[in-house]
Batch of 2 targets.
Target 1
Amino acid sequence: MKHLTAGRLGAVLLASLGVLVVCLAIGLVTGPSGISPGAALDALLHPAESGALADIVWRIRVPRLLLAAGVGASLAVAGVIFQALLRNPLADPFILGVSGGAALGGISVLVLGTWIGVGAGAAPLAAFAGAIGTTLLLYGMAAVRGRVSATQLLLTGVVFNAFASAGIVFLASIAGLADGSRIFLWLIGNLSAARTDMGIVVGVFLVVGLGVALSLARGLNLLALGDEAAAQLGMAVERQKKILLLATSLMVGAAVSVSGLVGFVGLIVPHLLRLVLGPDHRLLVPASALLGAAFLVLCDTLARSLLGGRELPVGAITALVGGPLFLVLLRRNSDRSFTA
Amino acid sequence: MPTSACRNLFPAWPAVARRRRDFAAWAITLISVVSFHALEARAEASAERVVSLAPSLTAILVTLGAGDLLVGIDEVSARQQPALAQRVRVVGGLFNPSLEGVVALEPDLVVFVPSAEQRNFQQRLSAVGIATEAFSNLRFEDVLENIERLGRLAGREPAARERIDAIRAVRAQLEASNRAVETPRVVMVLQRDPLFVVGGGSFIDDMIAIAGARNLAAELGDAYPRASIEWLVAAAPEVLIDMDASHEPAPAYWGRWPALGARGRIVHLDPSLVTLPGPHLDRAMQRLAAALHPMAPFERGAPPAGAR
């Protein structure tokens, strides 16, 4: 592991922040309405104005950019943490079933909502409730005898995801045409319903998760060596694992509740950064947050601009852009370890 | 009556004819042949046990007075025709009708709108020898043709003709009267989130043109495209017709983008009449015209627009 100096940390964070700012700027001036970059910047500087231009910049693009950044950062940080916690390079934010629980909760309301008298607007709330329920289940299942076992966690997650998928398929098959399109967009990941309040919720859980991950980053480095080794080196392994599990699951739950299952961000951003930066979590966690945000902002800009007035689900873009990019980097760096 | 034909119908004919070459044998043959012909003729003219797998086709049959021919309908039809659903069997959803449920009803005709799923279903029905008829209802003229065809199949030609004439009359009246007014630029929202709008090349798009307006979403290049909200705000429609079925009132939802309401009118329209390619396109066009031109005295005796 390369020694982490303040200078290296500063340089990496500054560069990542620079990339995020550039992506946000591109996102701000790009869109299907074809307003000029100058006009967009002008509208940004005059938030009190009214009219279509102000609506487009302040009430469509800005909330969506912020939500994309928040969701991207949450998923990428969750990916880093789960990969270390489970010591599994295939771990992504959705592997533990939190996403399945959220999707099941949200889709239940989409399909059955009219019978119990709530609209599609309640879906994010129900999804978050599903995520919390799943987290508690995971916790109860994995913390037998006071120890959090990675194998137990993974198996619980895989089984719960399968259960949730079955529930979703059942709901989808009794759903009508309109609900069917909503379910599809939920499963592939979609940010078109962006609202400022959603961004705030995602932001709160991101800050908590990020804070926990940064304060325990040294512990994450040790966890990668194995539970026994970490305990020998003086780490309160079980307590830290529980805190990480809880904070990360809530972060994923909040992100999935508003955006659905946006794939690939939580898998490839952490791996890309490991290839480039090495495995030190004190560097990986903040860099993943910034570049995960940048990646999703860029993908979402493509999703809402590529087809003119028609909208693409961002989950399709993350997979189309992310897959090949990841393979290229993996091939170039095949001599370097890419597992935690 | 040639003897060979009789032999085909009755294998025992020679024996019968030899034993009793009399009037009785001829009479029996004659009666059965005549009734065979009668049966055949009736099967060509009209079906008697019909299963409908599309709400628009169900609505047309009911309106033409052929509802009593229906023995089975899909779930969406059942929701739209509760009285009918009490009497006939519901055989599954639009995308997953039950083959066994349909076959058990012993229909002599199954009518449906082709989609990937239902086309496959048609093949399976044909394989067990049940007659099927496919109806496209993408364009305005398709719907009129469907009314005519269903009228023929159900033996209700006069009622079908009457309905088609009424629709054509309203169309002509609207086209004549909206030459005088300017054509507003309109977007029709089918669903708010995710945002789906009425694009070009659909029967609703045809009705927008007939009602004297320009459909801005025709440029999106699909019958029912998913649009982005930024496109909608930038398009700045003069009339935004909201047909979403959600509970949130239209002003509260669209108020999130004040420019939409500031530059155009937002009208909520009950989707049940306008979005069904069914028997009442005349009323649908009148409602649409009333929503588009609130000042123009278009409709005589038509119900007021469902503005809210």
Note: The longest helix of chain B spans residues 23-45.
Target 2
Amino acid sequence: MDRDYSFQRIEKIQSKADSALNNNQGQYFWRRFAGNPRGVFGLSTVVLLIILAVFIPWFSQYSYDYQNLSITNQPPGQNNWFGTDSLGRDLFVRVWYGARISLFLAFSATGLCLVIGVVYGGISGFIGGWLDEVMMRFIEVLSSIPFLLYVVLLMVWMGSGLKAVFIALASVYWLTMARVVRGQVVLVKTEGYVQSAWTLGVGTKGILFRHIFPNIIGTIIVTSAIMIPEIVFAEAWLSFLGLGVSIPMASWGALASEGIEGFRNYPWQLFFPAFFISLTMLSFNFLGDGLREAMDPKFDQ
Amino acid sequence: MVRFIVHRSITIIIALWLIVTATFIIMHTIPGGPFSRDKRVPPAVLENLTAKYHLDDSYARQYFDYFSGLSRLDFGPSFRYDFSVKDIIVRAFPVSAQLGAVSVVLALILGLGGGIISAYSHNKWPDYLVTFISSLFLSVPSFILASLLIFIFAYKLMWLPPAMWGNWQQIIMPALALSALPAAYISRLARTSILEILQREYVLTARAKGLSRISIFFRHILKNSILSVVTYLGYLIASIFTGSFVVENIFAIPGLGRYFVTSILNRDYTLILGLTVFYAVFLMAMNLLVDIFYLIIDPRIRTIGKE
């Protein structure tokens, strides 16, 4: 009875100390991140792009598939800020619809990878032994397949469309996440304080949620932040090959691929989607770098 | 070292078997056959075609035939073109390989050069310039860069031909478009590793001994920075070859990537299967070579392998 009580006390004190530490770490992390102009630029641009992608198509007088054949291939002007395409559709609204699709796809696919990766990598790393060996061999075999070939095959099989792109990309990128999570779990598991917690009789649940999870969450966030632009990229590539979302919907990649056909005479049809793909990539890259540098004391200079 | 190579080879063989099987299953379960696209084909003709390509055999039989064909490097006939998949590979691969090799070399030169300049002018304007350019290149997909290059250098300035293949002017733009992103990545890798090495004690010792900056550069810096880049080589080759699917299409280059894309659009079963398997074998073999190469040049890893 006495003994149990003292254990409870230890756990209580420990959890208080942990949360204080985590709070401080969070503040410290945030301060470092805010001191990095590129990271801040990345974050604010990403937030701005998301807000614009949500609101602009709502308030626009055009819809993404409204065709007006009397104003085909118009250059940017007062009525159509980004000009029109070969079917007379307003490119401004199409670009922002495209933003919705590209960003939604990138975030949701990353989210799915995160769930699968954390579960798979967590089990593999935490349980260890032969199970870990088998699970990691499986990943090793899968990742020695050039992943874009694999995505193309999946897309050919499932047919194009938003759902197919989502599944195809998520089914490839979880490998990276699982590997990262597993590595972190193994690393944290062998730390002295986790070993002591085991000895003190903290249960599996306590170890997982109080010790391992808080310690790997930073790495998971950084890995996700790096994964998002890769998925934007991969989606653009697929759309360019004609395997992306189906018309008349259009992601940025599909818009750019349409734009390339006539870009000698109507360069704005390529320029706007291309600009937004690149801006998104740039801001996510900056955001990812900023997060990584804020986490890693090696970058203290 | 031998154990490592055997281990990697086994992994690769399992992966290859998986991908061949997967391609086979995928191609036989997608709706619509290779002849279902065009104008309606008379049933008799369809029957003959089906018989000619053994599409009426059992799946197990076709699967077995495909494997025995592969072992003889026979990928079967293309459904769309009048020649075999092997003919297409033999004709188109040299073109892609040439473009790929030029791009890999270009990426290495630009990347290493950029990284070295950047590290040696740490936090001065050349460093900022290189970092800025590499951030840009990391953010622009190759097909966008390719079209921008065409727009500027072919349409506006008219310095270079916009497309096709055959002379050295025609290789410049596609190679640049393909190598920009990996070059940017390499320059970042090289910059970080050189900066780290410059602070190591043995470099300070070498300075204290009176070695000149130039000989330190060749003896320590270059060797170590190349080492950090070699780990990226496998990924570099894969990204240049998959990037070439898109770039070859834009520049109308008659390489493998172009056939791959059209084969997907045409649903040309055997060609997709054949090219996927070919690409997979090629890229995995390249990865294995890179691994072995890395073992050879880095003595630290060699000794770990022996234990």
Note: Chain A touches chain B through 40 residues (CB under 8 Å).
